[in-house]
Amino acid sequence: MSSASPTRLKVGILIVSTTASAGITEDLTTPLLRNTFASANESTPASQWVVAATQIVKDSLEDIQSIIKRWTDNCDVGERMNLVVTSGGTGFDESDVTPEAVSQLLHRQAPGLVHAMLSASFSITPFAVMSRPVAGIRNSTIILTLPGSPKGAVENLSAVIKLLPHACMQAVGLQSSRKLHSGGLQKLSTDAGLTPQSPPPAPQQQDAHHTTLTTEGTTKPPGYHSCGHHHHHTPKPHTNPSFSQITQPGEPVPSRLRSSPWPMISVEEAHSLISTHTPNPPETITLPVNPFLIGYVLVHDITAPVSVPAYRASIVDGYAVVGSDGPGVYPVVTVSHAAPTPGDKLPQLRPGQVARVTTGAPVPHGATAVVMVEDTRLIRATEDGREELEVEILASDMGVEENIRQVGSDVAMGSVILSGGTEITAIGGEIGILASVGISEVLVYRKPVVGVLSTGDEVVASDRVEGLRLGEIWDSNRPTLAAALRGWGFGVVDLGIVKDIAETLTQTLTAALPTVDVLITTGGVSMGERDLLKPTIQHTLAGTIHFGRVAMKPGKPTTFATIPPTSPTSLPKLMFALPGNPASALVTAHIFVLPALRQLSGFMGPRRYLPKVKVVLEEEVRRDPRREYVRGVVRWSESKVGGGGLVARTTGGQRSSRVGSAVGGNALLEIHGLGEREPEAEGREVVKVGERVWALMVGMVRGVGWDE
Ligand SMILES: Nc1nc2c(c(=O)[nH]1)N[C@H]1C(S)=C(S)[C@@H](COP(=O)(O)OP(=O)(O)OC[C@H]3O[C@@H](n4cnc5c(N)ncnc54)[C@H](O)[C@@H]3O)O[C@H]1N2
Ligand code: MOO
Ligand SMILES: [Mg+2]
User: Fold this and answer.
1) Is residue 522 lining ligand 1, measured as CB closer than 6 Å?
2) Could you tell me where the Basic residues compositional bias lies (predicted)?
C-alpha cells in the first residue's frame, strides 16, 4: 500500500454560545482547538487533521442540529466531515442543550470516548462532573461534545485525539479494529470518505434514493447516511452510495472495502433482532387430527366435549359384584363385554348375583366392584360346557367402586385437555388425547414455507451427469438444509442454484420471494468481490439488513434481512443469507433459522430455541476469540468423567468447510469466546476435560450402550 500521501481527516468545529454568536463575547475556543489539531498532526504524519469548517451558533437545539446535519449528511461522501467537535452548552443550565441536540442525531453511541474525556478532566478538576458530554457516530462522522471553557475543551479533546484517526477510519469502514489493536496506521490513498486525493467514481449517486436511519433495531453499515430525501413508503430500490460505491458489482476491485462495514453483534443480539422482526404467526388453518398434524401449534385451548370414560368401565376382566354380598357362590346372571351394548341399556344387577365383565366393559347398574377372574373359582357350567352358571367369589373386603373407572375420571367433560400454544408432537400424546374425546380437526397456526437457494459460480447440483471441472464443487448446502428443514417439519421449496451474477441473482430472488415465507440462501455474504447477497438485498430488493455479522464460529457473516411486502395485505418476507461454508450454513440454520421458523409457527419464548443442557467435556477444547458452536456428541456416561451424567466430545475437525463435522453429532457445544468477557472464559484459552459447558441439542442423546 502506498505511503506517499497522508490521510486527510476533515474536522468541523461548532461553537455553541449564545453570547459568542451575538458577538457579545469573543470565541477563544476555536483557535485553541485548531492548535490542538495542528500539534496532533505533528505526531501522526500518516493522518492529518484539516479544520474544514467552523461555525458559531446560539444555544438552540434546532440550530445545532441543522449545522451538524449539514456536516454529516452530505450525499457526497467526500464532502462530509470525518469529525465534528462542538464546544459549549454541555452544563446543567436550562439553556444547555448541546448533549440533547447531538444525542438525537447519533446513530451509534461511543461511550468510551465520553468516559475517556470525563476521566481525563476529572483528574484535573472535580468540576468535570458538571459537564454532560456525549459522543458517537452519525453516518460516517464521529461527533464529540466538548465543554464550553476553552481550557476544558482542549483538555477533553487532548484526552482522545490520538485515537480519533483510527476511529474516523473505522467509521468510514476503512480500518478494522484488529488492525487497530495490532498497532500501525494504515495509509489510504483512495477512500470512501477521507479526503480525497481522487475519489473513485460513484455511479448512481445522482439518483440515489435513501432511507433514513430511524428504523429501530436496524443496524446499518457505518457508511450509511441519510441525505434528507425521505424514504417513501412504496419500497423502491435504493442505493447507499458509500456502501454501493465499493460493493456494487462491476466496481473496480481496488476500491473494495477492506474491513466489513457490518457491526459484529453477539448471538444474543442476533436472536433478539430476529425475534423482533419475525412476524407473529401469520395465519391459522383447520387441520385433521392425523400424523400430518405433528409439529403444528394449537391456536386455542381445547376442551373435552365428552367424558372419558363415558360410562362406568371395568378395569379388569372378572365379575361385577354387589360389594355387600361378600365372598361366596353366586349365579352369573349376565355378561357385559367391551362392545356396544344392544339398545344402549345396561343390565341391572341385584344383591346375590354377579355379572361377567371384560376390561373396559360397562359395569352393570347395581354393581359396586369388580373382582378379577383370578380371585374366583368355577362352580357350575351348562351341560354343553359353554357357559358359566355359578362362580365362587374368593375375594373379601372389596372396596367401594374397586376396579371401576368412574365417568370422566380420565378426562372430565369440559376440562382443558390441551392449551393454546401446545405443540402436537411425534410422541403421540397430543394426537391421542384429541382422538380420545372424538376431536377430528383442530385450529393450528400455519407453518411457514421455506425456500432454499444455493449461490455460487462454483456450485454444481450433485445430479449433474458430467463430473466436476477445476474450481467446481458439488452443492452440499441445499440438500443439507432441505434435510434439516424436513426434519424440523417444514415444507421446503427447492430453489436450485444461482450463479454469482447480480442480475441473475436478483431475478431468482424476486421470483422466489412470493412463493415462500422465509428464504434461505447460502454463500456470497462475506468480503469477496462476488459476494453479492448483501448489496442485492439492500439495493435491489429494497430489503432491510438487520445484521450482517455475528461474533460466532462458524457463521461470522450470517445475514438476516426482511424484504418489504409487495402488497398491502402481505407480510414482510424473512431472508437468511447464510455463509457458504457447509458447517457454517448448517450451524447458523440451527441457531438462527430454526427459532424464526418456530416463532412463525406459533412457538413462544424459549421453546423456539434448541434445548440446552449442561454436559461434562470428555475432550479438551481450545477457545476461539469468537463464541464457538462445536459439533459434538452428547451421551450418557455411567461413571467415566463427572461421576455419571451427560458427557460430550467433539466430532473432530471443526473447520467450517468440513461438512463431515456434522456427521454423527447430536449437539452444538457452546464454547464462550475469549472475546466474550464471560468470567469463566476470560483469559482461559483452553476448556479442560471435566469442565461443564452448555450443549444445544440438535438430535437425541445417545443412551447407555450406544457407543459400546
Ligand atoms: N476477507 C474475508 N474473507 C472471509 C471472511 C472474512 O471475514 N473476511 N469470512 C470467512 C468466513 S468466516 C466465512 S463463513 C466465509 C463465508 O463465505 P460466503 O458466505 O461469502 O460464501 P462463499 O464465498 O460463496 O463460499 C464460501 C465457501 O463455501 C463453499 N460453498 C458455497 N456454497 C456451497 C454449497 N452450496 N455447497 C458446498 N459448499 C459451498 C464455497 O465453495 C467456498 O469454499 O467467508 C470467509 N471469507
Ligand atoms: O464464520 Mo466462518 O463460518 O468461521 O467459517
Ligand atoms: Mg465469499
Assistant:
1) yes
2) 227-236
Ligand 3 centroid – CA 253 distance (Å): 14
Q: Which ligand is nearest to the CA of 529?
A: 3
Is the minimum distance from the CB of 584 to ligand 2 under 6 angstroms? Answer: yes
The pLDDT score that the predictor gives to residue 265 is 95
Label residue 385 left, alpha or beta by phi (over 0 means left) and psi (-120 to 50 means alpha).
Answer: left
C-alpha closest to that of 649 among 640, 443, 177, 549? 640
Ligand 3 is an ion; residues with CB less than 5 A from it: 526, 528, 531
The torsion angles phi and psi of 273, rounded to 5 degrees, stand at: -65, -40
Q: Which ligand 2 atom minimizes the distance to the CA of 656? A: 5
Which domains are seen in the chain, by residue range? 7-181 (3.40.980.10), 284-307+410-445 (3.90.105.10), 313-405 (2.170.190.11), 449-608 (3.40.980.10), 612-697 (2.40.340.10)
**DSSP one-letter string for 508-552:** HHHHHGGG-SEEEEES--SSSTT--HHHIIIIIS--EEEES-BSE
pTM of the model: 0.68
The pLDDT of 209-231, averaged and rounded, is: 36
Determine the average pLDDT of the residues in 536-558: 95
Instruction: Assign 46 a pLDDT band (cuts: 50, 70, 90).
Output: confident
Is residue 228 predicted with pLDDT exceeding 50?
Answer: no
ipTM of the complex, rounded to two decimals: 0.98
Ligand 1 centroid to 575 CA: how many Å? 18
Q: Helix, strand, or coil here: 398?
A: coil
N- to C-terminal Cα separation, the chain: 58
Model pLDDT, residue 248: 56
Distance from chain centroid for Cα 395: 64
Residue nearest to atom 4 of ligand 2 (CA): 554
